[in-house]
User: What shape does this take?
Amino acid sequence: MRIAFINDYDCSEYLGGAALVNDYIIHFLQEAGHSVTYIGINPNRNDWSLLERDAFDILFLANLPFLSVQQIEHLTNCGTPYIVFRHDILPCCYVENPESRNEYTLIKNLLKNSHKNFYISETQKQYYHRIHQRADDRVIPPPINLTQFFNQNIPTRAGIIYLGPISEIRGINEILAYQKDANISQQITFCGKLESSELLNKIIDSGNIYIEEVPRSRVPELFNQYEALIHIPNFFDSFCVKVIEAELCGMRIITIPQRIGRYCYAMDATALAALMQKDSLAALQGEIMSI
Assistant: This one.
């Protein structure tokens, strides 16, 4: 199959959970014998011409926040089968009357006309069902290789860490407020790329520690050095791969479970990781081969 994989950022541009999952899916599809062309659309990249130049058997639509109305309409009406596999939740899913939003009809048609819609947690699916629902909509955890994440049983582990982009949208202000309200006396180590010097000042002024972003290869080591991971997003996080990685390393999670899609799955980290590394990929492959 000739597959166009349409997304916003790849791992070289933004190393987040969604990018890692997408990279894993692409490599799996290539190893399965498919020809995969990555088409990135973001403020610094526009590969749309690849879609216009080449013919594809199927379109794989991941995160599409930077596509224009005309581009989304083209995907919906071009006649090429497509699979929707979003990691995020669009703003119109949150409002009381989503049909009042300008993008409502656009997104409804995108979900209505797809070959299949995949969601990575039950709550994410419920949000999108406020716009359009189908009986064949399917929930699977995001597929990713987690074999490098395991508990090294280090007896001296201690401390709390936040790992990831340090920005307001990622809930840094909420974490600092939670630390104060919950009387957490331990310092929190914030590790990641800073959005602004203002946030750095807030971290230092509240008695916490900042360390620079570490390579992906060092994350399992870091997770085995600390006792707890803190993650308190100010939005509903559709899954959060970081949480399952930390759990596999034996970390305690400080969070609000209702805001994280991982907790839609009533199973321990080991069982869920097995699904993510095998069953989710099989489900995607099955849908592609059914076209």
The mean pLDDT is 94. Residues 147 and 227 are 20 Å apart (CA to CA).
